[in-house]
């Protein structure tokens, strides 16, 4: 479930109440007087890609009926709008209906910044932050730095908006944007469509940015008008001086990119910041031993599923079809919303992509979040896929750790799927038609918006009823999909003595490693069941294996969740030791709920990703960082840790950690934290929800 709140924009607060889309966008509170509580909920994660859109959607409705009913009735009871299954991906829906220049919007997904393509400050948060807003509690965010990206020149040829963010990711890496807002500006901005700007802002999550934003311009006005919000466009025009960078403003860091010189990029595998020009990736793959043959090309997702994206891909497909070619690789298409699906069906793009050999999947996250019933390979088989998605972490798309996933633009995915190999460069290389003649693909060109109106397709939105007094929300106590949460225990007022180390993680540990997606998503409403995926993807430094840790009592190696449950059953409190940028990726709340549920007390790392660090605090855990990152090497999986100083827990004051080695020796190190006074109250109460209840009594 995704929850979305739209706070009022400075100068544009009335626009949120006069949205031309016919759907209410409510303001929320951020250190402001109490106003109406906003929200919309969505279920785009539960539709598994299997055989094609309509059949997959019917299957999902059947399998997930209990969950869909819960969301629909809960929304109706508490005044929350509900986008039914098949609506599409929430980020596309937000862009089409809710986002506008100057809005401040928070959503429970890390790709919420997609709305920056319409000039909004749209920030991804954890679910507990959304709860605060819905309950009328002030939402807090440490004031971010601002990274400026100055764009000059103009996009042309095979270069696309996706290449901008792929280039920036290569420069900043997956943690270079942490604690910062990325502000794009400069004369090159006007060469990018509104939905192209959204693509760039969307994938800003992959550099750890708090959010990304573009200045208001005529491309945004055009998009607002085309999506039925001309009144908002006119209002934005009236206040446009407030929706662009201030003259002479200073950036904490400045990056300059000449779009006229920008080449098509492809990033990966296994991390979205490993950037390569498309012209070079084949040679790199040969050198590194990455599979050159592309098994599947996948276009769409919340990052690249606009009308323009589909049009440019169709333009590539038409050229191949004209020479009698189809895709050598399997090829899938994921429309971003029901409106996009209906419009590309009407305008012929979908059929062109089918003629090329493509399968149009349901309007949902699908393979991008691991909802992919993949049949063409066996788990453990080394293979390559190329996608227009945003993430390519190990096992992200198909749960196969040997799948080498690369992210690029939809048109490059289409070209590579036709050629079937990473060695193909559409800018210079030739294909051979069925007539034996060689030809080269021309750079694609397509309309950024349909010439006529968008086709809205089926009406998939459920308005909250005016009177919800008779509405009931039922959760069966025997359900395997839904479970009511019980309050976590309060802090006992003592230091944390002799914590067992559940796992010392080696290297990258994203929220996918901590709480895997894919088939596990069906348990998102059942904390105990989904906790059986806790840290199953993390690599244990002790043996170099995933999901294999030593039980300190039995000395046997076993799955991480089983070991955590053993410790919980026997009253043994535990801690996780992590590396750099721990918890990067999705805003997945379960990555914080699960360790708390199974008895964890602290997560100690070299550094954290922003959203995950906050999520841990919200659940009463201690996210702590080594004052000296080298101290990571002092801790061994067989050690025990004592964390002291909690009775005097105050902002800015480090905690003391005593490392107790099995041979009786001890070492003392310092652990930093970013807790403020309010967050320390969460810890003492056992969680932010517990503290909220205390304040209400």
TrEMBL record:
Residues 500-628 form the Aconitase A/isopropylmalate dehydratase small subunit swivel domain. It holds the Pfam family Aconitase_C. It comes from the Eukaryota. Its EC number is 4.2.1.3. Residues 445-477 are annotated as: Disordered. Keywords: 4Fe-4S, Iron, Iron-sulfur, Lyase, Metal-binding, Mitochondrion, Transit peptide, Tricarboxylic acid cycle. Pathway: Carbohydrate metabolism; tricarboxylic acid cycle; isocitrate from oxaloacetate: step 2/2. CDD domains: AcnA_Mitochon_Swivel, AcnA_Mitochondrial. GO terms for biological process: tricarboxylic acid cycle. GO terms for molecular function: 4 iron, 4 sulfur cluster binding; aconitate hydratase activity; metal ion binding. Transmembrane segments: none annotated. Its cofactor is [4Fe-4S] cluster. Catalyzes the isomerization of citrate to isocitrate via cis-aconitate. Belongs to the aconitase/IPM isomerase family. This is Aconitate hydratase, mitochondrial.
